Every structure is written in structure tokens, then in C-alpha cells.
Amino acid sequence: MDTAKAVYTAGRVEDYLRQIGRVVVIEGKEVAVFRTSQDEFYALENRNPHPKGGPLAEGIVSGHYLYDPLYDWKIDLRTGEVQAPDKGQAVVFPVYVNGDEIAIGI
């Protein structure tokens, strides 16, 4: 179920390199946006769910998983769930691709 209260333009498809995160700021929140090698787009709050925090945008994308840059946690880009044996939950935002425009729901 989509619970976004507002949708914000976040650039064009060609602005995002495959498997590389990019930070956009929406309503004062840093959002890490990822484009997979299959041209799927995902957005997570750019905050690691690890107790010590840290950025996610610099992580490595493989399939629909993100390997965070500080703790090597494996995070599902679709759900934000940290994979076992680690535990945690990243905040996920819906991404909308309309033609060549990218929008993110907050």
C-alpha cells in the first residue's frame, strides 16, 4: 500500500547511473536513490539502520540488494529489511518512473 503524502520530482532517468547511489534532499531528508542494472529504481533514507548510523548512498548494489559501505550489512532495496544474521530496517520511499522522469513519494 502506498502511503506517500506528497510526490517530488527527483530528476531524470539518465541522471542516475546503474548500481550507483545518488543523494537527493526532499523536505530536509537525505534520500539515497539507486538504479539497478535491470533499470529498477529504489529510494531509502540515506541513514544506515545500524545503531551507529552512517550513509547508505555509497553502498554497493547487487541485484535488488544494497551492501552498506560501513558495516557490510545486506539490505533489501525493495523492503529496507536488513538480511540475517544482522537485524534492522531502513526507511523505504516509493519511486515513480513516468517516462524519463523520476519522482519520490515522501
TrEMBL record:
Alphabetical list of Gene3D superfamilies matching this protein: Rieske [2Fe-2S] iron-sulphur domain
GO molecular function: 2 iron, 2 sulfur cluster binding; metal ion binding; monooxygenase activity; nitrite reductase [NAD(P)H] activity; oxidoreductase activity, acting on paired donors, with incorporation or reduction of molecular oxygen
Domain Rieske: 8-104
GO BP: any one term: nitrate assimilation
Stored PROSITE patterns: RIESKE (PS51296)
UniProt keyword annotations, A-Z: 2Fe-2S, Iron, Iron-sulfur, Metal-binding, Nitrate assimilation, Oxidoreductase
InterPro entries (UniProt xref): Rieske-like_NirD, Rieske_2Fe-2S, Rieske_2Fe-2S_sf
Record's protein name: Nitrite reductase
Organism: Paenibacillus stellifer
